[in-house]
C-alpha cells in the first residue's frame, strides 16, 4: 500500500461519530443535523428537468475536456459574475466533478513528487487540502486564521525558510468554516507572495454565490484588476452550493492556461469527467441566475433568524452558510447539544491542526444552516437554550 496513506488524519465526521458514541438524545424530539455542510434546498427545476429530458446521454462516454457548450457557459458565467473578460473556454476552462475532486487532483498535477514542496493551507480548513498535499508527497503548512485578522490567513506567521519551498497555496473565500471573505487588498497580498516565490494559488470559491452583503471579490477578478492576468492562479467552483445540487458533482477549474493544459492531461488519466448527462444539465444551471438569487435569499433569512435569536453578540459571516459559534469547550458542547437537544454540530477542533500548542478551531462549533427554514429555526432555538443552561457537575 501507498505509505503516504498512513499520514492521513481521520475525517472530521469520523471523529464526530466517535465523540457521540454512547450519547443518548432525549425522547420526544426529532433529530436535527447541522453538522455536515450538505445543501438541502430543493434542486432547481432547470437542472432536474434537463436530467430527465436527456437520460439517453447515459449511453455516451463524457469528454474529459468538457463539451464546447459547457466550457463556453462556464466562461460566460465567469465574465458576467466578475465583470472581467471571459476566460478562453478552450485553454483556460475545464469542467470537473465538483471542487472536492478537483482540489485534490490539482495538487497531484501541480506538485513535483521528487521534491519536498511546502503547501500552504488555512487553519482551520477543509480537510481535502491537507490530504491532497500529503498524498502528493508535500508538507502541509498550516496558516492561522485568527479572529483578530477577520479569520483570514495570517501570512506573516509563515517562517522565512518555508517561503522558498512553497509550490502551492490553498485559499478559500468565502471561507469554510468561518465565512470570511477576501477583499481585493487581501488578494493583492496573496498574489504578491505568489509572484515573489513562484507558487500556484488554488482558489476554492465554492461558496462564492452565498453571501450576506456585496458579492465577494473573486480570485480571477482580483488577478486581472491587479494587472497580472491569470498567471499562477486557478479558481475552482461548483454547482453544489450555488445551485443546491451537491449530488450532480459538477464544477469547473479556470485560470492560467499553462496550468489548465497539463491539468487536463492529468485528468485524462484520472478519469473524473462529469457524465454527458451532467454536462448538459450544467449548461442550463450556469446560464440561469434566478434560482441562485432565490437560494441565496433562503440562507440570508436563516442568518436573520440566527441574529434575532442570539442577539448582537453573534457574528454573522460575510459568506457561506456556516455559523462559526464560539463556545467554552467545543467537543464537550457538541456532545451536550446532541445529548440534551438532539442537535448535531461539528467541533471546530476537528477542522484545525495544533501548531505551537494551539488549535485555532478549538472553542468553536461549526453550525451548518443547510436544512429548511423551520428546521434551522428549531435547531437554533434548541442550541441557544442549551448553551444558556449552566452545566451541572
Automatic annotation (TrEMBL):
| InterPro entries (alphabetical) | Aminotransferase_I/II_large, DapC_beta/gammaproteobac, LL-DAP_aminotransferase, PyrdxlP-dep_Trfase, PyrdxlP-dep_Trfase_major, PyrdxlP-dep_Trfase_small
GO MF annotation list = pyridoxal phosphate binding; succinyldiaminopimelate transaminase activity
Q: Which residues form the Aminotransferase class I/classII large domain?
A: 32-380
Pfam families, alphabetized? Aminotran_1_2
A Gene Ontology biological process term: lysine biosynthetic process via diaminopimelate
Cofactor(s) this protein cannot do without:
pyridoxal 5'-phosphate
The protein's UniProt keywords, in alphabetical order, are: Aminotransferase, Transferase
Establish whether keyword Transferase is in the entry: yes
Xref: PANTHER family: AMINO ACID AMINOTRANSFERASE, L-GLUTAMINE--4-(METHYLSULFANYL)-2-OXOBUTANOATE AMINOTRANSFERASE
- What is this protein's name? Succinyldiaminopimelate aminotransferase
In its UniProt entry, the species of origin is given as Fimbriimonas ginsengisoli Gsoil 348
Amino acid at each position: 500500500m501507498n505509505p503516504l496513506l498512513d499520514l492521513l488524519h481521520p475525517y472530521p465526521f469520523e471523529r464526530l461519530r466517535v465523540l457521540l458514541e454512547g450519547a443518548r438524545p432525549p425522547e420526544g424530539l426529532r433529530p436535527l443535523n447541522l453538522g455536515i455542510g450538505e445543501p438541502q434546498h430543493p434542486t432547481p427545476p432547470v437542472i432536474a428537468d434537463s436530467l430527465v429530458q436527456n437520460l439517453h446521454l447515459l449511453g455516451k462516454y463524457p469528454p474529459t475536456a468538457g463539451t464546447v457548450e459547457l466550457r463556453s457557459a462556464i466562461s460566460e458565467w465567469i465574465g458576467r459574475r466578475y465583470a472581467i473578460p471571459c476566460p478562453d473556454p478552450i485553454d483556460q476552462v475545464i469542467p470537473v466533478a465538483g471542487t472536492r475532486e478537483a482540489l485534490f487532483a490539482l495538487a497531484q498535477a501541480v506538485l513535483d513528487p521528487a521534491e519536498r514542496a511546502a503547501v500552504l493551507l488555512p487553519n482551520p480548513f477543509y480537510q481535502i487540502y491537507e490530504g491532497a498535499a500529503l498524498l502528493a508527497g508535500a508538507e502541509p503548512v498550516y496558516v492561522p486564521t485568527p479572529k483578530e485578522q477577520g479569520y483570514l490567513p495570517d501570512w506573516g506567521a509563515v517562517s522565512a525558510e518555508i517561503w522558498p519551498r512553497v509550490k502551492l497555496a490553498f485559499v478559500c473565500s468565502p471561507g469554510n468554516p468561518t465565512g470570511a471573505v477576501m477583499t481585493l487588498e487581501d488578494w493583492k497580498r496573496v498574489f504578491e507572495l505568489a509572484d515573489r516565490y513562484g507558487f500556484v494559488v488554488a482558489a476554492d470559491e465554492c461558496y462564492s454565490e452565498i453571501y450576506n452583503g456585496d458579492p465577494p471579490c473573486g480570485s480571477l477578478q482580483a488577478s486581472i484588476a491587479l494587472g497580472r492576468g491569470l498567471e499562477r492562479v486557478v479558481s475552482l467552483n461548483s454547482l453544489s452550493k450555488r445551485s443546491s445540487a451537491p449530488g450532480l458533482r459538477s464544477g469547473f477549474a479556470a485560470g492560467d492556461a499553462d496550468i489548465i493544459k497539463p491539468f487536463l492531461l492529468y485528468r485524462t488519466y484520472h478519469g473524473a469527467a462529469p457524465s454527458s448527462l451532467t454536462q448538459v444539465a450544467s449548461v442550463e444551471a450556469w446560464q440561469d441566475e434566478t434560482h441562485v438569487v432565490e437560494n441565496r435569499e433562503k440562507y440570508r433569512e436563516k442568518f436573520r433568524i440566527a441574529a434575532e435569536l442570539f442577539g448582537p453578540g453573534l457574528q454573522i459571516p460575510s459568506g457561506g452558510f456556516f455559523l462559526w459559534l464560539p463556545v467554552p469547550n467545543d467537543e464537550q458542547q457538541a456532545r451536550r447539544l446532541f445529548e440534551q437537544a438532539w442537535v448535531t454540530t461539528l467541533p471546530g477542533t476537528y477542522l484545525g491542526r495544533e501548531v505551537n500548542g494551539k488549535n485555532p478551531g478549538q472553542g468553536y462549533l461549526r453550525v451548518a444552516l443547510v436544512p429548511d427554514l423551520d428546521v434551522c429555526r428549531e435547531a437554533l432555538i434548541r442550541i441557544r437554550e442549551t448553551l444558556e443552561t449552566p452545566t451541572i457537575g
